[in-house]
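Protocol step 6 of 9: fold each sequence in the batch and record its structure tokens directly after the sequence line. For illustration, a two-sequence batch is reproduced in full.

Sequence one:
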Amino acid sequence: MTKKGDSESPNEWMDKVVNSKSSAFCGAKWYNATVWLGNGMTASCHHPPPHQIDPEEVKKNPKALHNTPYKKLVRKEMQEGIQTRECEYCWKIEEMQDDVVSDRYYKSSIYTDEELDAAFNTPWDQDVTLKTLEIAFDNNCNFACSYCNAGFSTTWAHDVNKNGAYQDLNSEGWGAFAHNGSWAQPYGKKNQDNPYVEAFWKWWDSELQYSLTQLRVTGGEATVSKDFWKLIDWYEQNPQCDVGLGVNSNLGVKQASLDRLVEASHFIKDFELYTSNESFGAHAEYIRDGLIWDDWLNNLEHTYFNGNFSSVHVMMTLNALCLGSLDRFHEEIFRIRQTPGVNKTMMVSYNILRFPSFQSITTLPKDIRIERANHYTQWLARNKQHMYEHEIYGLKRLIAYIEKVDHGHSVQQLSGIESRQKDFYNFYSQYSRRRNKDINEYFDDWPQLLTWLNTLKGNNQVHKVDSLIDANAVDWGQDIVKNVLSNAIKNGSKK
């Protein structure tokens, strides 16, 4: 079985193996899925908007958790060389410059050349078997990060239920901060009689425990889900299983849960730990409400040094505010993984935030962006010897993004910079009051940011929301779904 050779650059491999099939092809559309089992939504990775799974179809065919009619039509577009709109995150990255590596590479190169050939040559309307899968059993979560919302965090839902909708936001996606996420738990917090959870366990028993290379559980906070611990118990009782297991944890949970994770890492053959952060100290505590920096760092070190995890991943969501201390954050990661006598793997991943667009890097004024791009270019030159190859590519991509992208990523009509900047100020003013976190105190070491924020005071952008709205996570991608279905009907692929 052939996989990418070490001597090949990512773009050389892409041209030879992926783009030679189709300039729009990506292995993730066939072999990977994210499925939010709590409410029955799916996407092929974390970039496209989610779409709804038919609850009746999964009762008859558990494979329908992944092989939805819509996803099959998108596969058809990829086979035909159409750069489907739902994957514009990667198209935007690839347009920046020739040596920038998009996630289409990382999402495809984990599969063999033969597997990618098989996917491309599979009839578009045929069910395929997953090789990598990410699931969320529910959205229960003890954090309420600034760029999250009530649909993915019950703590966020508590904020909205207590304080009402956020006001005076006009850019696309404002509705994410004006609903309480009630749509996210149609089967209640305990997922009683949930057809999607039942379909997962059926598919797991019949096929997935043999076909997957990795299963990853996210949330909310994965470790507060009873189904996650049911899965851990299953692994303990079935030590012969070769499916790698990954868990996303904010590492802000009780010590007993952390210790149980560490214990499980010693009996699960291939257990990967994923956590999230992208800034240092007070910045992290502001951006990720609920996080206590010292506790997070101590818990990261505890699980890293005491666990037998095959690798520890720190996922960064690269937003406007994290640029103030992304360098100091990296340096803490360097310090941990360079501990003398410790030979373990810890790495970071670079995920550029595009939603909500007003929290995007592209919302920052040009002078701050130029200064930050220059700063990180110089920092990379001094520190690349401490970084893995994919981390160097990731930071180079970020720097190019800071310098060159003015309109961000949006599957909807992108709001203008003036509207987004007003939203930036209006949102964080309310967020600061609700969370009792004064942004001027938490970012007092970044005066350039605070000076700019001060110019946005007293803006006249008004949008009053008198009551919570009825919205869900699939709303922002409906335009794309309708476009794909319309083209399919026009071309005779769907009636």
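Sequence two, same batch, same settings:
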Amino acid sequence: MAQNNAGIVRSILASWERGELSSLEWAAPEIEFVFADGPEPGRHVGRKAMQDLFRAWLGSFAEFGISVEDVIDLDRERVLALTSVRGQGKTSGVDLARAGSKTAHLFELHAGRVTRLVVYFQRELALAELGVGPQSVGPAS
């Protein structure tokens, strides 16, 4: 039996929580990767572009880490992950955990592959744009 989309996303996130951020086997070759907000909002296409952006982002932090708080099945193709990040800026010294970095990641999947990933540095923006209210948000399962 094929794994459902929420299960696929949980598997990706479990790797991220262990610090395994280099594998992109879960991504469609022409994945659309979007920073919805944050320091450099923008849209990028393809695994290579996403890998380059991941490297640049991770390289600017010491001991970067991500924790999953919840995974929400929005519909047949979209899964929202509520996350928090930690790490300290190598240049700025900003402590992400102290800054209250509550983030969100919207995964859009087709045929078991992520075709679009939207990163929200401000979780509230994701919740507002997607119409997800507090009643929909619970502990990660």
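Proceed to step 7 once all outputs are recorded. Observation for sequence two: The chain has three helices and six strands.
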